[in-house]
Amino acid sequence: MSTSASKYSSFIKAEAKRLGFLSCGISKAEFLEEEAPRLEKWLNEGRHGEMRYMENYFDKRLDPTRLVPGSKSVISMILNYYPEETQNKDSYKISKYAYGRDYHFVIKDKLKQLLASLQHEIGDFHGRAFVDSAPVLDKAWAARSGLGWIGKNSNLLTRQVGSFYFIAELIVDLVLEYDTPVTDHCGTCTACIDACPTDAIYEPYKVDGSKCISYFTIELKDDLPSDYQNKFEDWMFGCDICQDVCPWNRFSKPHNEPLFNPHPQLIENDKKDWEEITRETFNEIFRKSAVKRTKYEGLKRNISFLKE
């Protein structure tokens, strides 16, 4: 390993930490051989439901060198979003990742700063930043980079911090020092499988996206299926059940990113407040939030379904 690869890798990790990322790992940009048959089988079985976009760019999802020509390394980072306070107990629930400002914007800004620092330190190189809006298998790359292991609920888990974090990548044409994966620490635990009310975790490490509460409340644009009536456990946007019950999330600590702090009404509102929410209030509470993805009508649909 060249001294420049080692020096650049250390610089990248120090800069990622300075920008607020929990940790940073690096892996070689190459075809994801193990993931290819798994992804193909998952798609062929229709586990993605109406998420047709999952079928696109199959080759690019598995090979970063097709996404960023000439790429040599995938730099993965995780950013904590665990909140200091959670919603009123008598409330319809929103997934914790959507409490504050839309993470795409927050993280993209940090990644731009990181790229600028690298360009200043290293000179001319080519790289692109990704935050789950492109065909990149985030969790697979983070696991390869030693940031955690893929748990039975298919989330990335980390011993010291749990799983309430976002994953982001830089794919660059630099040869760097590569990290090694960590071992799986799920053991015999089946807490996430036992707790999922829609049986979306149909086998350990396998999730049927088309049965997930997050899928129903965010991705599905049609009417919600009556078979799932009374199974959403008051989740109106997303779902954290399989994370909330995971023993490793006992180690979650509140984030220190002010942009992820929620609007006070999001914390204080009770069920009645949500049932009576107007378009104006929706726009105010979720002005720059990921919840805007489901739109006002979508949130009202989800709340009506929970009330029935």
Automatic annotation (TrEMBL):
Pathway entry: tRNA modification; tRNA-queuosine biosynthesis
Binding site residues for tRNA: 221
Subcellular location(s) per record: Cytoplasm
Stored InterPro entries: 4Fe4S_Fe-S-bd, 4Fe4S_Fe_S_CS, QueG, QueG_DUF1730
GO biological process, any: tRNA queuosine(34) biosynthetic process
EC code: 1.17.99.6
Annotated residues for binding of cob(II)alamin: 61, 132, 153, 156, 167, 214, 239-240
Pfam family, one: Fer4_16
Cofactor(s) needed for function: cob(II)alamin; [4Fe-4S] cluster
GO cellular component, as recorded: cytoplasm
Gene Ontology molecular-function annotations: 4 iron, 4 sulfur cluster binding; cobalamin binding; epoxyqueuosine reductase activity; metal ion binding
Keywords carried by this UniProt record: 4Fe-4S, Cobalamin, Cobalt, Cytoplasm, Iron, Iron-sulfur, Metal-binding, Oxidoreductase, Queuosine biosynthesis, tRNA processing
Active-site residues annotated for this sequence: 132
Transferase found in the keyword field: no
Annotated ranges, domain 4Fe-4S ferredoxin-type: 174-206
Catalytic activity entry: epoxyqueuosine(34) in tRNA + AH2 = queuosine(34) in tRNA + A + H2O
Ligand binding ([4Fe-4S] cluster 2): 196, 212, 239, 242
Function description: Catalyzes the conversion of epoxyqueuosine (oQ) to queuosine (Q), which is a hypermodified base found in the wobble positions of tRNA(Asp), tRNA(Asn), tRNA(His) and tRNA(Tyr).
Subunit field text: Monomer.
NCBIfam families, per database record: tRNA epoxyqueuosine(34) reductase QueG (TIGR00276)
HAMAP family given in the database record: QueG
Protein name stated in the entry: Epoxyqueuosine reductase
Organism name: Christiangramia oceanisediminis
Biological classification of the source: Bacteria, Pseudomonadati, Bacteroidota, Flavobacteriia, Flavobacteriales
